[in-house]
Amino acid sequence: MNVTIEVNGERRTVDVDPWRRLLDVLREDLRLTGTKEGCGEGECGACTVLLDGAPVNSCLVAAGQCDGRAVVTVEGLARRDGGEVLLHEVQRALVERGGAQCGICTPGIAVCAAYVIDAEPAVAAAGSGAGGDGDARAKVRELLSGNICRCTGYQLIVDAVVEAARARQGGGSR
Ligand code: FES
Ligand code: FES
To answer: Does the C-beta of 24 come closer than 6 Å to ligand 1?
Structure first.
């Protein structure tokens, strides 16, 4: 079956079994290897991409479900301005805060966190409520609860996402 997907803003057509996992289409057919496989069964979030703007586990999505739809992978979070690559503010914050951990969990975390920053401004608002920082951190932990790191802590990730949310709330742009 021919499946046409807008991937990171570019129309791509692949001839695949409609039941082939989106994760495999991205990594093997389109060579977008930033998206990683962890558990392969919808538990870890390593394979997170945006499908029509919402985070999904690409290991649980069939290629046939994506025909005519838009996918954003970790490779598509940054934008280009002429020759310059401008990281999404959550990518910048992850790097600056030391929240970019291993290559397996980080791409999914970056995609999910970018969704949070772009679509859930309440995250930043939580930080300015009565509970202050604690509220913001609790909210970010809840929103990223589908992204699991098997080996270390979440503190620097949460710090980075809260910082990026506040930068966005303060009028920063992608
Ligand atoms: S690899 Fe898809 S959720 Fe773990
Ligand atoms: S799984 Fe990536 S740092 Fe733990």
So the answer is: no
The average pLDDT across 4-28 equals 98
Q: For 52-106, how does the pLDDT look when each residue is reduced to its tens digit (9 = 90+)?
A: 999 999 999 999 999 999 999 999 999 988 889 999 999 999 999 999 999 999 9
| 3-state secondary structure (DSSP) of residue 12 | strand
Domain identity same for 40 and 112 = no
In this prediction the pTM is 0.92
Enclosing domain of residue 88? 79-169
Nearest atom (ligand 1) to Cα of 59 = 2
Q: What is the CATH number of the domain that holds 109?
A: 1.10.150.120
The residue whose CB lies within 8 Å of the most ligand 1 atoms, and thus the one to mutate among 39, 74, 150, is: 39
Q: Within a 10 A sphere around the Cβ of 76, how many other Cβ atoms? A: 20
C-alpha angle 164-74-171 in degrees, rounded to nearest 5: 25
